[in-house]
Design a protein that fits this description.
Blueprint lengths: L1 E7 L4 E7 L3 H12 L11 E5 L6 E5 L5 H19 L15 H17 L21
Parallel strand pairs: 2-4
Antiparallel strand pairs: 1-2, 3-4
Length: 138
């Protein structure tokens, strides 16, 4: 299992990523480290979980090499952050507006950071942070 936290400073969000592990490892980790007892659906290959207490946001990706799963879960993450912060997500809803720009920025940010930090999860990744905080800050 790869564990790392990505901090998005504009919206002050820390997201815990758990990558390349199965459902059992995910649920065991959440229970052991965070005291969270939440089953994950048998039919999913990834999920984005939100809690009222730390770790607040968790993204689980069973296979970090599958960029389709990565982008899918990042989209859930970005839309949830925008919803929580009251940021519109409609594409260019009015004249001289860029309401979808925030979503585009956040998708770019999280995907770039994911690729940088998920060493070994994708062939093109070079280098990653070796320090992994156990509990992300809010």
């Amino acid at each position: 299992m790869k564990r790392f936290t990505i901090r998005e400073r504009l919206f002050k969000v820390d997201v815990l990523f758990l990558v390349d592990c199965d459902r059992a490892a995910l649920t065991n980790y959440l229970k052991k480290v965070w005291g969270i007892n939440q089953p994950v659906s048998d039919w999913t290959l990834g999920t984005m979980l939100t809690y009222d207490l730390p770790p607040y946001r968790v993204v689980w990706i069973s296979n970090g090499k599958n960029l389709g799963i990565v982008v899918h879960e990042l989209m859930h993450l970005v839309l949830k952050i925008c919803l929580d912060r009251g940021v519109p997500t409609a594409p260019n809803a009015g004249e001289h507006t860029n309401d979808d720009e925030t979503v585009a920025y956040m998708m770019e940010f999280f995907l770039t950071e994911y690729l940088r930090r998920a060493k070994g999860a994708h062939r093109s990744i070079q280098g990653a942070s070796k320090k992994v905080p156990r509990k992300p800050r809010i």
